[in-house]
Amino acid sequence: MLHDIAPHIFRNEFSTVTEVRESDYILYYKSNSLLVVKKEDENEIPHKSDLPEFSSIQDAIFLFTLDDKACFLLLECPVVNEDGFVYEEINFFRNYKRREIAWISILGHQLMSWYSSNRFCGNCGSKTTLKTTERAIQCTDCATTLYPKISPAVIVAITCKNKILLASGKNFRSNFYSLIAGYVDIGESLEETVVREVKEEIGIDVKNIRYYKSQPWPFSGSMMIGYWAEADDLQPLRLDENEISEAGWYSRGNLPNHPVNISIAGEMIELFEKNMM
Ligand SMILES: [Zn+2]
Q: How far apart are the C-alpha atoms of 48 and 236, rounded to whole Å?
């Protein structure tokens, strides 16, 4: 999955770093794109040493570390020689072969969005500031404290004997199918979300709900929580036309286009295909 980057080591602990080293990574995003250094073979995230005009740690926000390098975010565009740099869309990193670089690029974008959209307090409208003791934003007036927003969502692989239920969402590209998924709503357990989402989206009842594993999904700021479930395939499918354009039962060995294993959905579909669930 996207966050499985071994043997590289990602650490998200907050740190009060007082210095940016020459080899540390500097992430600057313009909307949905990341500033990278142009290289002949493969563009790279800039190190501090690539940004000679970089002046002070006051301009940089510590994000996390990858192996022995700290990763810093800049919210203001650094001064760069435009011939040597280019912007790369975040979606480009989905299938980037250096998985550890893909991971920090995509995760950095999630944090950038969070910092950028909370410059003012949602409670009183005053300016906010970054806390120095933890990864948090605090209002300078009413002291409201904000932490990165993570939205839990379930994703469900529904099976019946040697068949799996796959659905094509309204916003999917054509002829592309995945598992049923949906955000957790207020006042419900994860298992209740599974039952409700499946019923709402395709109109059937599921049983034998079993937890599989979870996956942080920074593209949408979600925590995807994977479940296996079983259902009787004789139940009529009633699709929520606002969400689902097609759904059906597919036999092992005869699955339509589906996600690859950078996502938990892809991994679960692959396990079903190999009869290893
Ligand atoms: Zn406030």
A: 59
